[in-house]
Design brief:
Layout: E1 7-11, E2 14-20, E3 27-34, E4 39-42, H1 49-61, E5 69-74, H2 79-82, H3 85-92, E6 96-99, H4 100-111, H5 114-125, H6 130-145, E7 153-156, E8 162-164, E9 167-173, E10 182-186, E11 191-195, H7 216-228, E12 234-237, H8 246-267, H9 274-281, H10 289-309, E13 312-316, E14 322-326
């Protein structure tokens, strides 16, 4: 049973729903918006028994039937936002909407083993031991189960008005956390549904990998600059609490990455794989396979940013692994 803190009316006719996830973050913030003809869900959680119970309980508490849901919007392909979309579609009959390029990524990542092979190759070429790549395959199989059944996706384009409940939001393309990620902006009320684009007090994971662009950190920093200029009065996030001062938090996140770039550069003393650098950058945070993979992806993103800046060079060692050296 949900407690009173699991549903919050964040704004008139806009409710936050805390959905449990099998992750150290514990919950993902999803949203329900009331409209003149029905309700819109924004993001879904994994497809787990706990998530199903959370959604069933939330609708009961709000006095809703499944048929009151008219659409489901998914902001990006990560399983804590996408995973239960197909199950919710089965319950409601509602369309699932995603930004067009992100929908392509979601199909590739969750539909089969092609992405898994690409991820294993990425891990190996950046210096991870063979047992880590094997363990990732097992972890991926579990994650795929939590995204089934796959939803039938209807796509939209960034910038096109999108009805969410009784408000019309503008989807803004803000790549970095994922390549096709969108945030949802309502200018009249100053509401930003920021999902994982901006978080506090934690920082969003910005990872390189097979589903990422060549320089995701550069994309993210540009997205931060764009979002910081929005005159938001209410910034609702995908995890933790709302952000009272969007511009200030964007400045803090930019400063965080500036510091992390200098730390990364300092650890490249000689020829170093990303795996070796990650052990130095994230020594205190690495306590599971999942956090190890996040650490590796984020380390590669910072190394690649420095390489594009001309501060690092990249080559292959005798074993075929990618190694970085200072210029």
């Amino acid at each position: 049973m949900l407690d009173n803190m699991d549903i919050l009316e964040a704004a008139p006719d806009l409710y936050g729903i805390r959905v449990p996830i099998p992750s150290p973050l514990a919950h993902v913030n999803c949203y329900l918006a009331r409209g003149p003809r029905g309700w819109t869900i924004v993001d879904t959680g994994f497809r787990t028994d706990a998530a199903e119970a959370a959604w069933t309980g939330a609708l009961r508490r709000l006095g809703l039937a499944w048929t009151d849901i008219e659409r489901i919007v998914v902001t990006h392909y990560h399983p804590d936002h996408y995973g239960a979309a197909g199950w919710l579609q089965q319950q409601t009959g509602a369309p699932v909407l995603m930004h067009e390029p992100e929908a392509v990524t979601a199909r590739w990542v969750w539909s089969g083993e092609g992405f898994d092979r690409a991820l294993a190759a990425f891990i190996r070429e950046h210096g991870a031991p063979a047992e880590a790549a094997a363990a990732v395959a097992t972890m991926r199989a579990g994650a795929r189960r939590r995204t089934q059944p796959a939803p039938r996706i209807t796509t939209f384009r960034a910038g096109e008005p999108l009805a969410i409940g009784g408000r019309t939001f503008t989807p803004l393309h803000t790549p970095g956390h994922t390549e096709g990620l969108i945030v949802l902006w309502h200018e009249v009320d100053g509401i930003l549904l920021a999902n994982d684009m901006v978080l506090a007090p934690i920082s969003p994971n910005i990872s390189a990998g097979p589903a990422a662009a060549g320089n995701p950190l550069a994309d993210y920093l540009a997205s931060l600059e764009r979002v910081a200029a929005l005159p938001a009065r209410l910034t609702l996030t995908g995890h933790r609490d709302p952000i009272p001062d969007l511009a200030a938090r964007c400045a803090e996140l930019t400063a965080h990455h500036d510091e992390r770039l200098e730390e990364t550069l300092a650890l490249v003393d000689g020829r170093r794989t990303a795996w070796q650098v990650a052990q130095g950058l994230f020594a205190r945070q690495i306590n599971s396979l999942a956090t190890t993979m996040f650490a590796l992806g984020e380390t590669v993103a910072h190394l690649e940013f420095l390489r594009h800046q001309g501060r690092l060079a990249r080559s292959r060692d005798e074993a075929g692994r990618l190694v970085y050296t200072r210029r």
